[in-house]
Amino acid sequence: MKTTITDRLILIIRQLGLSNNAFAEKIGISQQTLFNYTKGRIPSVDVVEKIINKYPEINTDWLVTGRGEMQKIENNQQVGNIENSTAVGVNVFGSNNSFKVPEKDVQNSIQNYQETIKKQSETIEKLVLIIENLSKKC
């Protein structure tokens, strides 16, 4: 389904859990101006810039053209619906709020998982040797 910039703007406001008036205030435009945009008027480049400056997690390409996903991560990879995706080290819309996981924490978690996998592999190798030795004795 093809969406318009008006559809995408309304979706952003809903995802943020804000009223139209609160959103207009947060990005620094009048309520009437936002009303016009939600009724089909195309936002100016200045207004798109205000939205992106206030909410940098919004994918500019998605907002302007509809290509990609609403949210982005810092290295410009796209993140889809938070309920169906895992995103770390990035601001991501939740159900009316956002969260951030520091990259250092992600790296530490990956390192811990790698160490755990290495230990499990070593244990499996030892068990295989034990089983092979036992089977030779039988």
Structure description:
This protein is mainly alpha-helical and 138 residues long. The protein has 2 domains: 96 residues, 434 Repressor (Amino-terminal Domain), CATH 1.10.260.40; 37 residues. Helix content is 57%, strand content 6%. The chain is built from 6 helices and 4 strands. It has a two-stranded antiparallel ribbon. A two-stranded antiparallel sheet has the order 3-4. β1 and β2 form a beta hairpin. α2 crosses α3. About 18% of the residues have low confidence.
Topology (elements, then pairings):
Elements: H1 5-16, H2 20-27, H3 31-38, H4 45-54, H5 60-65, E1 71-72, E2 78-79, E3 92-93, E4 98-99, H6 103-137
Antiparallel strand pairs: 1-2, 3-4
Helix pairs in contact: 2-3
CATH class category name of the largest domain: Mainly Alpha
| Strands in their spatial order, largest beta sheet | 1-2
Would you list the SSEs in sequence order as H and E? HHHHHEEEEH
Shape: rod-shaped
Number of domains: 2
What's the CATH H-level homologous superfamily of the largest domain? lambda repressor-like DNA-binding domains
Rg measurement, Å: 24 Å
DSSP strand tally = 4
H/I helix tally:
6
At CATH level 2, the architecture of the largest domain is Orthogonal Bundle
CATH topology of the largest domain, anyone? Answer: 434 Repressor (Amino-terminal Domain)
Amino- and carboxy-terminal Cα gap: 66 Å
List the keywords.
mainly alpha, 4 strands, 138 residues, 434 Repressor (Amino-terminal Domain), two-stranded antiparallel ribbon
Short description, anyone?
The protein has 138 residues and is mainly alpha-helical.
